[in-house]
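Dear Dr. H.,

I hope your travels went smoothly. While you were away I took the liberty of generating a structure for the chain from your last submission, since the lab meeting agenda had it listed for discussion. I wanted you to have the full record in hand beforehand rather than looking at slides cold. The sequence, exactly as received, is reproduced here:
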Amino acid sequence: MSSNILSLIDVGFQIPAALIVIFTCYRSFRLRDGLVNEIYRTRALWVGVLGIFFVLAEILQIGSDLGYAPFYFPPYPNTSILVAYTVFTAFGVGALYGWFDTTARVVLDMDFFHRDPLHWKSIRKPAWALLIMGVVVTDLTPNFFYYSVVSIIFFAPVFVLPGLVIVLSEKSLYDGALRRYVKWIGILIATLFLLFATSAINPFLNFPLLLTAYCLYMVSVSLSSTSKVELAPPGTPRT
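The corresponding predicted structure, in token form, is as follows:
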């Protein structure tokens, strides 16, 4: 199958995924204004921030598929593009890891016995160092194949560990809304690994993005069931 056909198919998945996430961002930021509990307000904020990066990446990929904007893979043609992609990757990967990390810590703190079977609180800071190293090393790889291999070596442990902490701690949560939130994060992590596997085979095989977008939307929906709060208009003072 030609690359032109694959790129058009890819756009067919990318556009609805982007629309879903745009709505999710709007919903999450509005939901944050209506929630009282600071834990849930912060969770909604994280979903909105991750959604913004997701949409930016989608716009870049769609523009590349349609031939309006270049989308580069290592090796990059010049230093400026290398720096730009490194900063963009660092923001996205850092925000995703930050979301998983803070969620894992919230889940552990809400455990009545404060159990930490994977010792996440001890290894979370070294994981940040591994993450930063991974961003730099992957962008310096000589081709797309090595980019995929190095990404697995550096990023898989960093995202798998907090993901396991979140999923394994689900049953210890007494809050039903937070349990649903955690469940959908676990499913979202699975779709991210599926996305990485398909894109490693071919950069145009990004169809799991539609599943990831839906999971992010369901993560936001799970927070709305914490309480029946009527959202106030933006800018309304909190009492």
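Two observations you may find useful: Residues 227-234 have pLDDT under 50 and may be disordered. The two ends are 60 Å apart (CA to CA).

With kind regards,
E. W.
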